[in-house]
Amino acid sequence: MLDYDFNETGLKGKNLLIAGGTGGLGRAVVALLAGEGANLLVGYKDNRDRALELQNTLRTAHGVEIGLVGGDVSTAEGRSRYLQAVREMEGPLYGLVCLTGDPARVKFDQATDQDIQESMAVNYVGPILLARAVAEEMKENRTSGAIVLFSTMQAVALFDSSINYAGPKKALIHAARIMAKQWGGPDGIRVNVVAPGVNRAGMALSSIASGKYDFFVDEGIIPRFGKAEDIAKVVRLLVEPDNYLTGQVITVDGGLTLRKDLR
User: Fold this and answer.
1) CA distances from 19 to 30, 89, 195, 261 (A)
2) Which of 32, 83, 165, 195 supports an S-S bond with 251, CB 3.0-4.6 Å?
C-alpha cells in the first residue's frame, strides 16, 4: 500500500482574497481555485462590468459563486474596502493572491518623477501593504495560511529600459522574503512570489499581438508563449494547505531568463 496524503481536496471551503482577479491571468487563477471549492472574494480596480461578467460566467456555466469587491490597492481607501469585505465573509481568511500591478511601459530614460512614483505605488507599496493588512487579519484569527504576490521576469533578469517597472517588482520580491521569515513558523503564514514571463494573457498580451516577442519563439529561446493556465497552476501549488514552500520566487517563463542572449 502506498500511504501518501496528497491533500486533493485541501482548498475546499478555504476563504481566499484574489486581488486583481478579473484580469487575464487572474481569471484563470479564479477559475481554477473556485473549481476546487475555495470560497473566493475577487478584487478589481475599477472595471466592474468585467468583474460582473466573470461572476456571471462562473455562476451560469460552472455553478460557482464568487464575491466581488472594488478598489485600488495602491490607496488606503481601496485596501480598507478589501479588508471590510474580507471581514464580511463567513469564516476566517485563509490567504491572499495579489496580481495587481502595472507594466509601467514608459522607458526609464523617458520616465518622469511622477512615472517612477506611480510605478512604485502600484507595483510595490500597494501589494505589500495589502499583504500586511491581510497577515494582521490572519494572525488575529490565528489562521495559518498563504500569501502569493506577483512580480515579473524583469525583476529576476536584466532587461534594457525596464528600471521603472523592474525596480519596484524586485523590491517586492525582497519584501516578500522578509515577510516569509517574519511571519513564518509552525502555525505561521507562507509568503511566495510568482514571476511570470511572456504570457498570452494579462500585461504582455498586447505586446505578443504586435509581434514584439515573436523572436523569442522563432529563435528557440522559449518553446512557446506562456498561458494563463501555466500561472494558475503555480498559484494553486503555492496556496495548497500544508505546502512546504515559503520565501520562494517561481519564475514561469519557459526558461527565457536562463538565456544569455536576451535582447
Assistant:
1) 10, 15, 16, 35
2) 195
How big is the chain, counted in residues? 263
The mean of the pLDDT values for the chain is: 94
pLDDT at 5 over 90: no
Domain 15-255: assigned CATH number: 3.40.50.720
Query: Taking the domains of the chain in order of start, what are their residue ranges?
Result: 15-255
Whether residue 148 contacts residue 192, with contact meaning beta carbons closer than 8 Å, is answered with: yes
Distance, in Å, from the CA atom of 193 to the CA atom of 11, rounded to the nearest integer, reads 19
φ, ψ for residue 183 (rounded to 5)? -105, 5
pLDDT band at 259 (very low <50, low <70, confident <90, very high): confident
Inform me whether the pLDDT recorded for 8 exceeds 80: no
pLDDT of residue 260 exceeding 80, the answer is no
Counting beta carbons within 10 angstroms of the beta carbon of residue 245, is it exposed (0 to 12), middle (13 to 18) or buried (19 or more)? Answer: middle
In this structure, are residues 253 and 231 in contact, taking their beta carbons and an 8 Å threshold?
no
Give the pLDDT confidence of 143-173 residue by residue, as tens digits.
999 999 999 999 999 998 899 999 999 999 9
pLDDT surpassing 60 at residue 62: yes
What is the distance between the alpha carbons of residues 39 and 36, in angstroms, rounded to a whole number? 9
Q: Report d(CA 100, CA 20) in Å as an integer.
A: 5
Q: Is 254 left (phi over 0), alpha (psi -120 to 50) or beta?
A: left
Phi, psi of 92 (to 5 degrees): -75, 155
